[in-house]
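seq as requested:
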Amino acid sequence: MTARSSAGGSTGTATPTCRRRCSSRAPSQCRTNDALTSHSQSGGRIVEGDNLPVLQSLPAESVQLVYTDPPFNTGNVRAYQRLRTTRDDEGERVGFGGRRYRSESTSQHSFGDAFEEYIEFLAPRLREIWRVLRPDGTLYLHLDAREVHYVKVLLDKIFGRDCFLNEIIWAYDFGGRPKRRWPAKHDNILVYVKDREQYVFNRDEIDRIPYLAPGLVGKEKAERGKLPTDVWWHTIVGTNAKERTGYPTQKPVALAERIVRASSDVGELVLDPFAGSGTVGAAAAQLGRRYLLVDSNPEAVDVMRARLPGAEVVRP
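struct tokens:
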């Protein structure tokens, strides 16, 4: 069952319409590419290239959900290696049921995650995301504490403050423990809607979780569980996880599945313009949504192509 928001409120200082904005662009930037969004009912596309011209080419109001995980501007060089895991009774890894495996590194890669003008980089892309979202559409923007506060101010200007829906905290407990500050163990996901009166929120489709104190609620409630709050506890993708691709910053598919279930309908289009390892596409495909994934990194595209063999790959 698809539930639509009935909350009131205007869209505030939302971005002007596509027609007005296109009047100041070169004609080639105003052309739309309907082919990228008109794929089969359950199919998807992977596009290799700069996401800004790709976003500019998409028709207005053609996407129901955008969930994306842009670079966090950590200032670091991210390195990753591709692993091949095979059964081996003498292997160094122990999996389910005590079975042993060995892992071999097949290749190693790296990329920079530093921007001198991060907000200036994101701003035109977020404006295009607003344009391509349908009136019932939602944006989930996955960041961390380094830039989330600055980006929220930007999104308030683009979408309007009334269209801010949630800040979701993804909490995990893994990695290093610094000695002179609190360990940073969460990411921030900003949620904005195109129109507060029309956005999709499929409450009945969301996975329920146990109560922290089941004794404080009735037996029936305790057995049914509750809807997640805006704090989501979920482990990162483990080194032995079946879904692991070896790509850095890969997010758990369960995280993306919860978002796709809640904020899109079966058969509709889900977009990730910073697609990385293709987790959003994997979740969308599993749940019967169409997907459009964009990344400028050829190695990311190779990872996605292996992960989503049914997708059409477009290399301009």
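The first helix runs from residue 18 to 22.
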